[in-house]
Amino acid sequence: MNRIQKVLSSVALASLLAAAPLFASAQPLSAHAGTGVFISQSGIVHVIGANVTSVGSGFVNAMTTLGNVVLNFIVNASADTKIGANGSAHASTTDIKVGDTVSFVGSLSSSPGSTLTVAAKKIRDITTFPALRLGAGTITSVNAGAGSFVMTKGDRTITVQTTASTTIFVNGAASTLASFKVGDKVGVAGSGNADGTVITASKVVVRNAEAKKSDTDNDHEKSKKGKGVHEGLRLFGGIHIGKDN
Question: Does 3-125 match 132-235 in CATH topology?
Fold first, then answer.
């Protein structure tokens, strides 16, 4: 039995697993989860939404609560650990502050009592370095004066805040929020908060009713020539804003 297997089979960790069934999940956590912990049978740890209790050079101590179970983590960083904090993807542990919320991924190395020690591959300070968000949906309201709009996708509602550096395109041309309309299809790239309900946008692309009419005309012409159907606007290397069928 190797060291990781011994850690996973320890009495202390076994009791935590029994008290918090989420640990035993075979599914990785969603990046949009607010708080969660996943420990694989091979000792890979993925924690989202832990609260920082202390910080030092090369380590972060953090805790999270799952139901009635309080979990404490010693998160050790090496020269190879990728740390995102204070707007930098090349930060150090000392850029993270007590009270911040962090997520981290790494290998479980020991479990003394109720504290788990992790050799981290990645640490992200969600408070000061939010994750990149990509989203596509339908505009439901616009506040051009505040530089923001609200979009929905399924049952999710997302507030999108633009800044002076946000690039905005409507039907392929540079534009502003003043040209947005309720019902327009929109794609967004930017930094989001922990639960993905707010995105500060770096790029916004809108496709409105005028583009749909143009697509219909183009489809009609293409169908005559046997060249297929226009597939809609592609943006951000994978998000599609297609036509309404």
Answer: yes
Question: In the predicted model, what is the mean pLDDT of residues 183-209?
Answer: 84
- pLDDT value of position 150: 96
State residue 94's pLDDT score.
Answer: 95
pLDDT of residue 242 exceeding 80, the answer is: no
Q: Specify the DSSP class assigned to residue 88.
A: B
C-alpha span between 152 and 135 (Å, rounded): 10
Give the pTM: 0.53
* Residue 114 tokens, joined: 């109720």
The CATH code belonging to domain 3-125 is: 2.40.50
The SS3 call for residue 20 is: coil
- Residues in the chain, total: 245
Helix (H) or strand (E) holding 44: strand 44-56
CA-to-CA distance for 75 and 160, rounded, in angstroms? Answer: 33
Rounded distance between C-alpha atoms, residue 95 and residue 125, angstroms: 9
**Residue in this structure with the two tokens 């505009």, named with its chain if needed:** 139
Segment 154-182, tens digit of pLDDT: 888 999 999 988 899 999 899 999 999 99
Give the angle subtended at the CA of 236 by the CAs of 234 and 237, to the nearest 5°: 75
Residue ranges of domains in the chain: 3-125, 132-235
| CATH architecture, domain defined by 132-235 | Beta Barrel (2.40)
**Six-digit token pair at 237?**
């290397």
* Distance, CA of 224 to CA of 245 (rounded, Å): 19
